[in-house]
Write a structure and sequence with these properties.
Elements (H helix, E strand, L loop, with lengths): L1 H19 L7 H22 L4 H6 L5 H30 L1
Length: 95
């Protein structure tokens, strides 16, 4: 469940970052792919740091809203960061 939330929020985060920062916008497909990668990584990093914990909450008998929101935030931020890196690299190569 954590991974799915991270991947989906990463795709959204990548597209939002691309829409807000036109100089790193790579188009919907690349924004989404970079966001998915970043969202997966961001969600996993949060889990390793002890934040998130959707799976732990589900095993304990309930889904904690704060755990889900932290996964969404981590995935979205991770997606935006990876898109920024991809955009900067592609812009540097293009010059």
């Amino acid at each position: 469940m954590e991974l799915v939330i991270g991947l989906l929020s990463g795709a959204v985060g990548g597209n939002v970052a691309g829409a807000l920062l036109k100089n790193i916008n790579q188009g919907t497909l690349i924004n989404s792919l970079a966001g998915i990668v970043g969202g997966g990584l961001g969600g996993q990093v949060l889990s390793m740091l002890g934040a998130g914990g959707v799976a732990a909450e589900a095993a304990a008998g309930g889904m904690d809203l704060t755990a889900i929101l932290s996964q969404v935030a981590g995935g979205g931020v991770g997606g935006g960061v990876v898109l920024a890196v991809v955009g900067l690299i592609r812009n540097a190569i293009g010059k």
